[in-house]
Design a protein that fits this description.
Oligomer: single chain
Strand content: 35-45%
Number of helices: 2
Strand order of the largest sheet: 7-8-9-10-11-1-2-3-4-5-6-12
Distance between the termini: 22 Å
Order of helices and strands: HHEEEEEEEEEEEE
Number of strands: 12
Radius of gyration: 17 Å
Mean pLDDT: 83
Shape: globular
Largest sheet: 12 strands, mixed
Low-confidence stretches: 13-18
Structural class: mainly beta
């Protein structure tokens, strides 16, 4: 799940085109703004926590800037400089290298594919923020439902709840920061892992 968070955020990168209602247009406007904050050229950082019904727990930090990204957890780290994706397993002391767009880098990626016309959209206001809900149309595979919570004042993402099959999980987001993200952050520091076994 740790490596899926970027894919989950990418789900919200494209907002519905086919559904043209005032509610859907409002959802698109909010997601366009939040997406730009997360993936724009200024870069962003956030801390996340995931708990899948008590079976699997993890937390870490993700940095993004355009097509570049980095994540860090207690065991795993990964750098994507836009050309190369490098993942480190600190427990096994291995370094795995892939092309930035190589689907083999993450076995879960195919489960999180997203086509905007395959979902219906709705936005609602609550005391804690704005909820954007996306429900898959009949026959759509992968994510069946997603619900994002945005802060009312900043439009920062606060959480994302997703349904995949019969399972639900909520990703809690804190320490969100926009801007002041250096490109150097996404370059794999090879000298720090010279003793690790390299895998391709």
């Amino acid at each position: 799940m740790r490596k899926l968070l970027l894919y989950i955020f990418l789900v919200f990168a494209t907002v519905v085109q086919a559904q043209d209602t005032p509610n859907a247009r409002q959802a698109r406007h909010m997601f366009d703004r939040t997406y730009q904050m997360v993936f724009g050229p200024q870069g962003s950082m956030l801390h996340y926590k995931v708990n899948i019904i008590g079976i699997y727990k993890t937390e870490g930090t993700i940095w993004t800037k355009g097509k570049k990204s980095k994540f860090e957890e207690s065991r795993y780290m990964a750098w994507n400089d836009g050309t190369t994706y490098t993942r480190v397993d600190k427990k096994k002391k291995t370094v795995s290298v892939y092309g930035a767009n190589d689907e083999n880098r993450d076995k879960y990626a195919s489960k999180f594919t997203f086509e905007p016309d395959n979902y219906t959209y709705h936005i609602e206001s609550a005391p804690e923020g704005y909820y954007i809900t996306m429900k898959a149309k009949k026959g759509v595979k992968g994510i069946k439902e997603a619900r994002a919570l945005l802060d009312k004042k900043t439009r920062y993402p606060l959480s994302v709840r997703i349904k995949l099959g019969i399972f639900h999980t909520t990703i809690k987001i804190t320490q969100f920061q926009v801007g002041d993200i250096s490109d150097d952050l996404f370059v794999f520091p090879a000298a720090q892992y010279q003793g690790y076994k390299r895998k391709k």
